[in-house]
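Hi, here's the filled form for the chain we discussed.

Project: internal
Contact: R.S.
Residues: 90
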Amino acid sequence: MELTEEDNQLVKQTVESFISPENLSKEILQEAQESRRKEFETADYWFGVTLVSVIAPFATMALPIISPDLNVGLLLPFILQFIVGISVLF
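And the returned structure, exactly as it came back:
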């Protein structure tokens, strides 16, 4: 089965209609960057970060109950995180 000139032309048009790999990779990268940027701009993301900043220090504040010999100065960063989380949340 031989391809006619018209078939060859249609094949060439089909191949040329595809986007080049370089352009495709640029578009995918740009779309991923926009998606990531939008993810950080949403209020839900920052609410989640703030909520974790408020709740996470409670676990470390329970450590002196478990281990009374623990230096309380080690808890200072978590207490500060708690204070900042509360101030941002409210």
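Let me know if anything looks off before we file it.
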